[in-house]
User: Fold this.
Amino acid sequence: MIKSKIFSDIKDSLDKLNLKFNENFAVEVPHNIEHGDFSTNVALLNAKKNKMKPRNMAEKLAEILNKKRNYKSVNIAGPGFINLRLANSIYHKALADIIKVKKKYGSSKYGKKKKVLLEFISANPTGPLNIVSARAGAYGDSLYRIMKFVGYKAFREFYINDAGNQVDILAESLELRYRELHGERFEDFPPEAYHGEYIKDLANNLNIIDGSKLFHISEKDRLERMKNYALEEIHKMQVASLKKFDVNFENWMSERKLRQEGILEEALSYLAEANCTYEKDDAIWFSSTDFGDEKDRVLIKTDGNPTYLVPDIAYHLTKYQRGFDIILDVLGPDHHAHVSKLRAAIQALGYDIKKLEVIYLQHINIIKHGKIVKMSKRAGKIVTMDNIVQEVGKDAARYFFLNRKPSAHLDFDLELAKKKSSENPVYYCQYAHARICSVLKKAKKAKLTLKDFDKKNLKKLNKDEEIFIIKKMLEFPSLLIACAEHREPHRLAGYIHDLAGVFHRYYAKYKIIDVTHKELSLSRLYLISAIKSVVAIALNLMGISAPEKM
RNA sequence: GCGCCAAUAGCUCAGCAGGAUAGAGCAACGGAUUUCUAAUCCGUAGGUCAGGGGUUCGAAUCCCUUUUGGCGUGCCA
Assistant:
């Protein structure tokens, strides 16, 4: 709001001076507070165009801007920056605007209702969700919340790989545990089978339901029963874990369903129609080299079964058919080779490749006793999402995962995360919220309520810290847009921490409630209630609770 | 070999499409409380932004290159 006003003031002034300029100049809040409230590099970027020195151009511009009423001062600094200081009244008005829109502060129409599909986690339904899924969950869900808040029509989707090899192995693993319950012994449990304890639990429960009657049906039917039972139960388990982590999905897409509905054949036939498939060595190939892949890929194996590429192409076909403008896949870093094949297929099908955007979340190392823990899903040695939520709590876990950018590797030190929760920065942020609630409560007891507050008194907010806090809050809307645009929710984590810090310092330095100065107290209460609101909105966008008391 | 990702304080990480003196947290050291909640605040110390080159008025940020680490490069998913 304020920024765009400054933009237009600068443009007006340039026009008045008949100076040429490119609109890509910046108006930003300088790191160093002594450089003013805002600064612009417009003269640095455009001096050449006007055959002037940057400082000369800046001086001419400053002269015009100084005549405008909104500016306390306009100075030239360094190589030709223009530093602007605004009148306090501008900030007071902005503060009132924040209070006015309440919970909607920071929301916008930036996304223009574009339809966005966010696919994330999409773990195999063969066991409990692990820490990798936890990171993906925290990331995907928060990005969803932010994108929705800034005006995108966003949807979350979980793709269930409930068909293919892995699932067959799952059924066989369950079969083995089931047979153990009926007296059989396996000296060497097959290494490729799933070893987790949950398989034993599943066998126990299945045995309670079906008893020994599964021995009286054909092996094929028995394995089918095993598969269906395991898939259903593990899905329930995963949904329960996600619920505890506050992650929901608008849609669950099942690979089996895609297969049953003939989408795989549909995708294959489109590829054939586009002349992108051929037969060789008893297999069907996709000529992906035509689309920049390094070699052609097999679609249908010699044994007649499709490779994993086919259902994935079919799945993405549905994403396009459903009319999304932006298709975001959140994947592990080991998928990038796969994605190049997928991109080739999408081009072959004639769809706009630019709509598909892949975000790679880098690996997580679990550190235990200073050593990296190797995880293996099949061997049952994993740190689960439930473990993390139980041990460090949902709020801390989500903050922890969101505090780093997606492209960065992440070391998760279990001992440290478990040790003392107060060491976690999330409490610093939440405490700011709780503290404000506590002050507001106290104010109420002292009969100070904002109902009979006259905004004219906002001029009493004249301390540097108070203006600084308002400035900080004014950054919030554009910060959210940046988070959405760059798909980087971690910036929000940093922002809340900053805002909380600004508040804590203010709190330590100034008394908010002072019954002998009623107007000043009310003004300050007004200010901190705005902080409270922004902190709450931001925490909520990260899926973290904003406690009233700690 | 080729491809993708990374390298910033002792540790874990930020650094907002190039801006002015590179910032937090933790760890270390020294202080602040008869409080509006100390889960807080103030201070000290800590850096060749992996090395080198280029573009620019200006580079941690963009380009090239070298080094180091992770991952990938299946008729597994």
About this structure: The radius of gyration of chain A is 29 Å. Chain A has three domains: 2-86, 92-110+424-541, 120-254+362-421.
